[in-house]
Specification:
The chain is α+β, with helices and mostly antiparallel strands and 322 residues long. It is 27% helix and 13% strand. It folds into 2 domains: 1-42 and 225-322, RlpA-like domain (Barwin-like endoglucanases), CATH 2.40.40.10; 43-222, no CATH class.
């Protein structure tokens, strides 16, 4: 297992080697008293938002809310992406604002030197994170979409290595201007993928989805063998059936199917909407639908969400390899 940069402030604990699987769901999120008043268990981006808030990566409004469903402008998104990625700092921003005020030099045609977002635009342009539209504008108040968000955010990391763009998504092909960013997002599970292999690149971004993408990037950079996607579960009819490992399925036990992990691997699975986490043993292969990463026994799934939900967004992390 490779060793990544150790960040001591991670809220997800590093769990040592275990001999048995925990059947008791636990909450991995801090649920601090100063959590955003409108972000609670059940919010589809609950874990991501609470993690970023606790680590001062995102901020809410003066009334204590975050407004996760609210659409986000290009100026707001640029500020958050720059600071969350470490591409710039608040000190750099203050210094750049002072310089722009003195020179009265606009970084782009529609960005006044005295606007609050001018230093972010100026620094992002200088670092080739953005270039503006063909007419020389930035359109700071325009709602940003998913494709634009991926480009700006990933451009904050100049050393990234991008995978081939031959086969990405049904609605994001190799000829699209954002192809390499979509390919990276697929490789690292940064975005939500439908069963039809679509991501809707033109969708308006919300503050919640933005937080989710940032959170997933941080986890990929700092935690070994972590992935994101959807979890499903075996139906009643599968109970007692043979699995790929040769072990018969007990739908009440905490076991699961994964496409590639060795049989016997212990995986921690977390419901991203609640922070509930369980540990399961890999005994089978699957699931194979687009965006699906793990198939849980009924007992395991029911510990994370009601069976009627059917599919949930999860994070899974390898705890022990056999």
């Amino acid at each position: 297992m490779s060793t990544k940069k150790n960040i001591t402030w991670l809220l997800i604990p590093i769990i040592t080697l275990i001999a048995t699987i925990s059947h008791t769901p636990k909450i991995i999120s801090a649920l601090a008293p100063d959590n955003f008043s409108d972000v609670s268990s059940g919010n589809s981006h609950f874990v991501a938002i609470d993690y970023l808030r606790a680590n001062n990566i995102i901020q809410g409004y003066e009334d204590g809310t975050f407004k996760s469903k609210q659409k986000i402008s290009r100026a707001e998104a640029l500020k958050i992406f720059l600071l969350a990625s470490g591409a710039t700092t608040e000190t750099d921003i203050a210094q750049r604002q002072e310089t722009l005020t003195q020179t009265n030099e606009s970084p782009l045609q529609d960005v006044s030197a005295t606007s609050w977002f001018a230093p972010y635009v100026s620094i992002a342009k200088e670092k080739n994170i953005i270039s503006g539209y063909e007419d020389g504008t930035f359109q700071p108040e325009k709602t940003i979409n998913l494709a634009e968000s991926l480009k700006i955010f990933l451009n904050c990391y100049p050393e990234l290595e991008y995978p081939p763009t031959d086969d990405i998504f049904a609605d994001a092909t190799s000829t699209d201007w954002f192809a390499k960013y979509a390919a990276y997002a697929k490789q690292k599970n940064l975005v939500n993928i439908t069963l039809e292999n679509k991501i809707d690149p033109n969708q308006d971004m919300t503050r919640g989805y933005m937080a989710e993408i940032i959170y997933r990037k941080i986890m990929n950079d700092t935690v070994d063998l972590v992935e994101f996607g959807k979890a499903t579960y075996y139906g009643n009819g599968a109970d007692g059936a043979n699995t790929a490992s040769g072990e018969k399925l007990d739908n009440t036990s905490f076991v699961a199917a994964h496409k590639t992990l060795p049989f016997g691997t212990i995986v921690e699975v977390t419901n991203l909407a609640t922070g509930k986490s369980i540990q399961v043993k890999i005994i089978d292969r699957g699931p194979y639908g687009h965006g699906r990463i793990i198939d849980l026994s009924m007992g395991a799934f029911e510990s994370l969400a009601d069976l009627s939900v059917g599919v949930i967004n999860v994070q899974d992390k390898v705890i022990h390899l056999p």
